[in-house]
Fold this sequence. Notes:
mainly alpha, globular
Amino acid sequence: MVFVVLVATTAGWAACGGDDAMEAQEGCRELVTAICQRGVQCNRDTRAEAQTLCEQSIATQFDCGQAKKLADSFDRCVSEVRSFQCAVIWPSSGPMLPASCQKVVLR
């Protein structure tokens, strides 16, 4: 499986993080979980370890520990990942995240 979530880099980020960064890192992990849950559902993967394997696989693609802020569209993104029909979010060509997920996690 290949997952793509667009992450934006905040060049010249002045603050060291704080609450925004902690919230962003938790939100990033929430999004990873939502994507993988949907992937397991849509692909009808019945292996007990499917969710864990998915999360480990995409953890290398976006480092949630580096997240600094969430975009305003974050809640909508997660909601759409969880609710879009499988044919929309998981076509035969691979996962297609909603437009609301573009640059949703800022670094």
